[in-house]
Amino acid sequence: MAAKKIKEGIYWVGAVDWDRTIFDELVTLPEGTSYNAYIVFGSGKTALIDTVEPLKGEELLRNLKELKVNRIDYIVSNHSEQDHSGMIPEILKLYPEAKVVTNKKCKQMLIDLLDLPENVFQVIEDGETLSLGDKTLQFFLAPWVHWPETMFTYAVEDKVLFTCDFLGSHIATSELFDTSDENRAKVYLETKRYYAEIMMPFRNFIKKHLALIDKLQPEILAPSHGVVIKETEFILNAYRRWVSDEVKPLVIIPFISMHESTRRMVDFLTSELSKRGIAVRPYNLTSVDIGNVAMDLVDAAGVVFASPTVLAGAHPAIISFAYLVNCLRPKTKLATVIGSYGWNGVVTVKHIQETLRNLKAEWIEPVMVKGLPKEEDYTRLEELADKIAEKVREYASLKLS
Questions:
Q1: pTM beyond 0.90, yes or no
Q2: Is residue 255 classed as helix, strand or coil in its secondary structure?
Q3: How far is CA 348 from CA 56, 264, 318, 340, 341, in A?
Q4: Distances in Å between the alpha carbon of 98 and those of 72, 102, 108, 121, 292?
Q5: Signal peptide location in the record (predicted)?
């Protein structure tokens, strides 16, 4: 996509990846993605802020050529991951006078990942400024959004904050800004998906970085994936809700059923929770997009893991999902296990709970059933639904932060 003007002297020069469907061989990309790089022309110096995935590097080079960029003095690297830094070696070949401006930790990671020499770097400290003439760049360390070396760059006079992955979304679009009503729903969902899959484990760090943004009051947020954000409060308010401790009266039931016994339990519990006014979403892990489940984990009050016993533990698909939940560290307040077994159900519960050591949730007494659920088992599930509903209402009504 061609270069696009954001403000006088500031342009988007990145690349759009319309066809990419998965990231890190893990995260699905239903809307594709973009790698946003920006160029800032000062009266004296020119800075390129981040680069793009090398596979799309030709688009970045074409945009620089289109804008007749004859000299780059600084390549600002907000984050060393290769989808943003991967073209730095090529840019240095074309613009050998350029210095790579970044923090000390990011410098070392760029050396490790890209084999860059020491002498190309200009290391900055938190809060330091860099003059481009009539424009000033200011740098703020923002560790753990989502790597330890991440930082923000602020174009002071223009009030544009370049946040790299933070506040981004995986969206391929020819529209630079998030201005249309039609786009708002997509931008919200894909930003939430991005938060759920990438940022959620760092929610406590993010609270501090949101406070910094509140202090800066930028007019434009320019992340390194997805749309550039003019309606800053739209995204910032969403993030404030997601990183808070507040939960919604929602229960999700990720499940696997091998011979329909566990599925019958899931269907029954889903119906019973719904009767009690609790929003509930069962997810069959054999076919679901895990990104959709992750989005519900952002603010669901409870999770019911439903699994048959396989050999001496839970079904591998449930354990795989539980491992992911353990990594994402959602703010879920309660959890339990239901399922069917042939000769030992205790091992399934123990297997799931041991996989979820990072989940700071209240565990409710599980319901494990031998074989097909029977009348007395459905009674136990009704009692479980009562307990879950009571707890969900209690937690969802609390203003915890």
A1: yes
A2: strand
A3: 46, 18, 10, 9, 9
A4: 6, 13, 18, 9, 42
A5: none
Q: Going along 179-317, which residue ranges are E strands?
A: 220-223, 248-255, 279-284, 300-306, 309-310, 313-314
Residue 223 pairs with which residues in a beta bridge? 164
CA–CA dist 241, 328 (Å, integer) = 17
E strands in 103-256: 121-123, 129-131, 136-141, 151-155, 160-164, 220-223, 248-255
Q: Backbone phi, then psi, for 18, in 5-degree steps?
A: -65, -30
pLDDT, the chain, mean: 95
Q: Which residue in 53, 320, 291 sits closest to 195, CA to CA? A: 291
The mean per-residue pLDDT over the stretch 358-365 comes to: 96
Range 61-76 average pLDDT? 97
Per-residue pLDDT reduced to its tens digit, 155-209: 999 999 999 999 999 999 988 887 677 788 899 999 999 999 999 999 999 999 9
DSSP 155: E
CATH code for the structural domain at 251-394: 3.40.50.360
Instruction: Please report, for the chain, the start and end positions of each structural domain, with discontinuous segments joined by +.
Output: 4-230, 251-394
Taking the C-alpha atoms of residue 256 and residue 80, their distance in angstroms, rounded to an integer, is 38
Query: Which CATH number does the domain 4-230 belong to among 3.40.190.10, 3.60.15.10, 3.30.428.10, 3.40.1550.20?
Result: 3.60.15.10
Q: Of 292, 297, 295, 347, give the one whose Cα is nearest residue 322.
A: 297
Q: What are phi and psi of 249, to 5 degrees?
A: -75, 65
Are the beta carbons of 50 and 37 closer than 8 angstroms? yes
At 313-360, the pLDDT tens digits run: 999 999 999 999 999 999 999 999 999 999 888 999 999 999 999 999
Distance CA 295, CA 328 (A): 11
- 213-231, pLDDT tens digit by residue? 999 999 999 999 999 999 9
Strand partners, 28: 22
